[in-house]
Specification:
Layout (H helix, E strand, L loop, with lengths): L1 E6 L3 H12 L4 E7 L2 H11 L3 E5 L7 H11 L3 E6 L7 H7 L3 E4 L4 H12 L7 H12 L16 H11 L4 H8 L3 H15 L4 H10 L12
Helix pairs in contact: 2-3, 3-4, 7-9, 7-10, 8-9
């Protein structure tokens, strides 16, 4: 059972999402928060697996709340965004978000997104990240490989670059002619060696280190 916390200052938004999520097999909504501070408090108290977090809320906003949750709990955060809030997305990734959903997403996509993040994968929808990651990583300054990539093998660097393109383990396996289990093992080892918590953070590291160049996402 996936335990989920809803965090949005709009009662109608929470009321709209809750029945969709509770109607899905294997998902339980354990609480609701109307601001970032409450989201942090309830995450520590209720220990949800996933927090569905609005980016703009009164007091402590979703970005700051995400950073606190990612730093102090095992919960994974999905940011709720709109195309009018693009400037926040890169910061949310840096803060520890595991993915993004637009507020007008279809119910099936919402449920799928929660399940994807709950199992430890990143929810990096092409409709958001192919444009935004390229744009905002280009603003991040000169790439800095740093020490975290030095322990990676050549194959692991190749796999990490494909993760940054948004490929799943199965897609990585097909691209490199590996078994899905081997691709999954490579990704797990890369995360351990680099000290990141999920695939979203691997994407950030790939760009900031210069392993992946902005604009590569989405190319065949």
């Amino acid at each position: 059972m996936i335990r989920l916390l809803l965090a949005d200052d709009q009662t109608l938004v929470r009321a709209g999402f809750r029945p969709i999520l509770e109607g899905a097999d294997g998902i339980e909504v354990v609480g609701e928060a109307a601001d970032g501070a409450e989201a942090v408090r309830l995450t520590r108290l209720l220990r949800p697996d996933v927090v569905l977090m609005d980016i703009q809320m009164p007091g402590l906003d979703g970005l700051a709340a995400t950073e606190q949750i990612a730093a102090g709990t095992a919960a994974r955060v999905i940011i709720l965004t709109t195309f009018g809030l693009d400037d926040y997305v890169y910061g949310a990734l840096r803060a520890g978000a595991s993915g993004f959903l637009v507020k007008d997403t279809e119910p099936a996509e919402l449920i799928h997104g929660v399940r994807v993040v709950a199992r430890g994968d990143a929810l990096l929808a092409p409709s958001i990240t192919r444009r935004l990651i390229s744009e905002f990583t280009a603003r991040a300054g000169q790439p800095d490989p740093g020490p975290r990539l030095s322990a990676l093998t050549g194959r692991e660097r190749e796999v990490m670059a494909l993760v940054a393109e948004g490929l799943s383990n199965d897609e990585i396996a097909a691209r490199l002619v590996l078994s899905p289990a081997t691709a999954k093992t490579h990704v797990s080892r890369i995360m351990t060696k680099t000290g990141v918590r999920d695939r979203a953070q691997l994407v950030i590291l790939a760009y900031e280190s210069g392993l992946t160049v902005p604009g590569w996402i989405g190319r065949a």
